[in-house]
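Our platform keeps sequence and structure together, in a single record for each protein. Such a record has a labelled line for the sequence and another for the backbone structure tokens. This encoding replaces a full spatial description with a residue-level series of whole-number codes. Below, we set out a record of this kind in full and without editing:
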Amino acid sequence: MSLFGFLFEAVLISLSGGMAPGPMTTMAVGKGSESPHAGALVAAGHAVVEIPVMVAVFYGTGRLLDLPHVQAVIALVGGVFLLVMGTGMIRGAKKEVSATTHRTPAVLAGVLVSVGNPYFLVWWATVGAALIMRSVRYGLLGFVSFALLHSLCDLLWSWFLSALSFKGRQFFGQRFQRWIFVACGVLLLFFGGKLMGDGAMQLSAQSMF
């Protein structure tokens, strides 16, 4: 397979992962009520975490993410972050919604939902690692091209979501924006609770051995 063929396949896989509902897509929609460009900033925060992870996997340290205790701790800490963010969004929906309602800056929000999402790390330890190993066949150019295209997929999708959310606010007004905050807050609470539950189960399973 040529480099372009591999990159085309990698883009499709990256988009399928990035477009799946999750904390980052939820955050992009929620922050989109503030600015149509907020999703791009969320993606930038995501890239701050993701690029070092890609480099780490490239150099073979991604196996650390396979350790059950590491996954469990990440799940518990990430769950707490998402619960705090979700609660903040729901509380903010009860007030007059403004750009300061959800105080976490978009870039920092992107960092937090990435660091606190074990599924993101597991994806890079499995699917992502496989793609990186394939990219290495084309040398450093292959790896760099893959990394840039993957990040671009995240950027464009998050940007699209925030722009769509912002346009919805313009067309439907403050009530629509409040419903967006409530829906995103509930989703973040769900993801946070699920992560904490998964982390607790992993720790419990490890303690039995």
Notes: Helices lie at 3-18, 23-31, 38-58, 68-93, 106-115, 118-125, 127-135, 139-207. The chain has one domain: 3-207. The first helix runs from residue 3 to 18.
